[in-house]
User: Which sequence fits this backbone?
């Protein structure tokens, strides 16, 4: 290990654990449906790993994953975005391939980080898609930098419109992070999903490796964005939520979205919980494809 490597915040508990996780990440990437490249860009928070696919001349879409996830989990969704240039970003400090030298602690930190991602890619403006924590990152960025948003697709963003249920997460999810056992991790993630649905084994293997060997270095707390903060955003917005969503009531959040963004497109994904991109891939992909192809 070099002296420079020692400056990175320890996302994984050991070199062996890191290797186990990286192998699981690569195994999940075998399900990526298109050709892809990987790249690394520099930010003040650390070098960020990106998965890039689609024609280089295509209209750019940036995709941001959920907390304790990574870009490999977008494999069910990218096939809906043929013709676009897609950049899936691993958040530094989370369970991915990016490295963290500084923690993203505040909403302002998150905006600077995303500014630097766009700048490194040479993009003045782009389409954004975010799931869960990634949806909050995109929303937080959209109200701070509305001029850089062409379209915004939010897939069950955590907090953002309603407070995050920290008490429920403390009971259902945090034990799997603090005392990781495969059975406990499976139970936590299956709770996120619709009744009777279990995550595919190749996804669960990566999640178990992450929880067993990782410790998050991403302390920023997602929060509700005030209704007035959305007023400067003129870009089209798509909001998707499963009818069995666990982090908030689906009908209540749709009402809040319609109040904050009266011109947005709001869709219920039936038979889906929080992992809607996996649970109901066809419905999610159809909604996203129609949204990104809609003329501005």
Assistant:
């Amino acid at each position: 290990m070099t002296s420079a490597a020692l400056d990175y915040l320890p996302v994984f508990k050991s070199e062996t654990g890191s290797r186990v996780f990286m192998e699981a990440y690569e195994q999940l990437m075998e399900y990526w449906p298109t050709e892809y490249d990987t790249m690394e860009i520099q930010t003040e928070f650390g070098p960020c790993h990106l998965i890039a696919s689609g024609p280089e001349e295509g209209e750019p879409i940036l995709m941001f994953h959920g907390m304790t996830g990574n870009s490999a989990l977008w494999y069910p969704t990218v096939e809906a975005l043929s013709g676009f240039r897609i950049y899936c970003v691993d958040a530094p400090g989370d369970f991915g391939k990016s490295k963290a030298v500084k923690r993203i602690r505040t909403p302002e930190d998150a905006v600077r980080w995303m500014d630097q991602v766009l700048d490194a890619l040479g993009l003045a403006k782009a389409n954004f898609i975010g799931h869960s924590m990634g949806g909050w990152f995109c929303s937080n960025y959209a109200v701070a930098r509305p001029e850089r948003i062409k379209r915004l697709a939010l897939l069950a963003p955590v907090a953002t419109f309603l407070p995050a249920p920290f008490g429920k997460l403390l009971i259902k999810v945090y034990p799997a992070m603090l005392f990781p056992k495969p059975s406990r991790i499976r139970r936590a993630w299956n709770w996120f999903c619709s009744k009777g649905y279990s995550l595919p084994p190749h996804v669960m293997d990566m999640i178990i490796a992450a929880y067993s060997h990782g410790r998050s270095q991403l302390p920023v707390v997602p929060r509700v964005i005030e209704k007035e903060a959305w007023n400067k955003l003129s870009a089209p917005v798509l909001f998707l939520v499963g009818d069995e969503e666990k982090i908030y009531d689906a009908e209540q959040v749709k009402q809040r979205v319609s109040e904050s963004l009266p011109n947005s497109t709001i869709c219920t994904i039936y038979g889906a919980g929080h992992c809607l991109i996996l649970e109901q891939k066809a419905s999610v992909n159809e909604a996203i494809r129609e949204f990104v192809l809609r003329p501005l």
